Sequence to fold (157 residues):
Amino acid sequence: MIDNKPTYTVRTKNTDGALRYYAAFVDGDGRSQEVEISREVYLALEDCRRHEQRQARSDERHEERFALSEGQLAERQARPPLLLEDSVVLAADMQAALATLTDTQRRRFLLYQEHNLSFEQIAIVEGCTHPAVLKALATAQEKLKKYFSGEGYKIGV
Fold:
């Protein structure tokens, strides 16, 4: 079994209005160390951490597949996958839905969903506050839910 224990942790600290970044780890002699790092290194380490989390979840899904009963596997197979044409239309529908958002909402939504940035990272990139990011994302999600929840909504309609 693979040890999923992280080998390092990262954190931020607001000092006199300036955001500082730190990485903590155990060195080769077994001593805990913490060093200040640049914003770029912090973002890269956070990106690695998120990638490792996604990989662990993927591994769990693959392991789960082996634990499923024959009935559960048959039930999952009963739902047909999207046809290529339907997935292309769905992508076009998503583009149309994204067009209903303001530029700020769309940009922050894509940074969160597509680039997997945290709320804090988006706030840094956008030069705004954490609550402003939360508000923009909540509004964007509501608009998208409303767009796709239209009664009788069908792919490509």
Notes: The radius of gyration is 21 Å. The longest helix spans residues 39-67. DSSP finds six helices and three strands in the chain. Residues 81-157 form a domain with the Arc Repressor Mutant, subunit A fold (CATH 1.10.10.10).
